[in-house]
Specification:
alpha+beta; 7 strands; rod-shaped
Length: about 130
């Protein structure tokens, strides 16, 4: 009699355990998409601020430059993702010279203005008389 009661109790516990496992929602393993580092993401031109003026100085060591427009001056830095163009031709940072007229597309990162695009204006050709 004791064995019968023990068997019934054991079967009841096993039945409850299997019932609970069957009622639980199945676990699906989802693999999150690999995160891409912020440094390799290209900056979206739609979210860039713009500043135009005359290139006052270029610091090759700090990879920075200063642009002035009237009394306002802003300092910018470049990185490997900065695109520099003049008349649809690519330039390098070393090609930038003081006195050039430029338009900078930039984004504020921490306390720096990070240049994403630099467009150098082509020199104006004087009209012939």
């Amino acid at each position: 009699m004791k064995k019968t009661i023990l068997s019934v109790v054991l079967l009841t516990l096993v039945a409850f355990a299997f019932g609970a496992m069957a009622a639980a929602p199945p676990k699906t393993e989802t693999t999150p998409a690999p995160a891409t580092p912020a440094e390799t993401k290209p900056m979206s031109p739609a979210k860039l601020e713009k500043f135009s003026g005359e290139l006052k100085s270029v610091d090759a060591m700090a990879k920075g430059f200063v642009v002035a427009k009237g009394k306002e001056e802003k300092t910018f830095v470049v990185d490997d993702n900065t695109k520099i163009t003049k008349a649809k031709k690519d330039l390098t940072f070393a090609d930038l010279k003081a006195g050039m007229s430029i338009v900078v597309g930039y984004k504020k990162e921490m306390d720096k203005n990070m240049a994403a695009t630099i467009k150098v204006a082509a020199p104006k050709v004087p009209a012939k008389k």
